[in-house]
Design a protein that fits this description.
By secondary structure, this protein is mostly helical. The chain has 6 helices and no strands. α4 packs across α5. The C terminus is likely disordered.
């Protein structure tokens, strides 16, 4: 994922009061791909920050997903947050991210992006480019 794009998405989510969703997703990625020796510590941190009653960055997941996750963290492992992470991902995909794509923040990001010269032509799909030299048949 593009770091600048992710930073802009986080800024947008802060304005929408839902930045905890992206932070939760990132914490779950750290759990999945992080050090094996830190799994229990990371699971506990995720629970305390995002799932515990009164958590400062509480995420809203459905009761069945919460139940499965709370049962799973009794024996912490790398994939214990997968259901909760997917739930939050789908919330962002269906709700927050489409709004971000329509936001001025995103439009400004696109305006400021450096566009490589070969993509400036008005072709919609890269595979529609005309070949300059015909290649021999295999």
């Amino acid at each position: 994922i593009d770091p600048l794009g992710r930073a802009q998405l986080l800024e947008f989510l802060k304005k929408e009061f839902s930045a905890e969703n992206l932070s939760f997703w990132e914490a779950c990625e750290e759990l999945r791909y992080g050090e094996q020796a830190r799994i229990t510590e990371i699971v506990d941190s995720i629970y305390q920050q995002f799932l515990a009653p009164g958590a400062t960055r509480w995420v809203n997941i459905d009761s069945k997903t919460m139940e499965r996750t709370l049962e799973g963290i009794k024996t912490p492992h790398r994939y214990v947050m997968d259901d909760a992470q997917m739930h939050i991902y789908m919330l962002m995909k269906k709700d927050s991210y489409p709004r971000f794509l329509k936001s001025d923040l995103y439009k400004n990001l696109l305006t400021e992006a450096i566009i490589p010269p070969e993509t400036k032509k008005q072709r919609v799909f890269p595979f529609m480019r005309k070949q300059r030299h015909s290649s021999p048949s295999p």
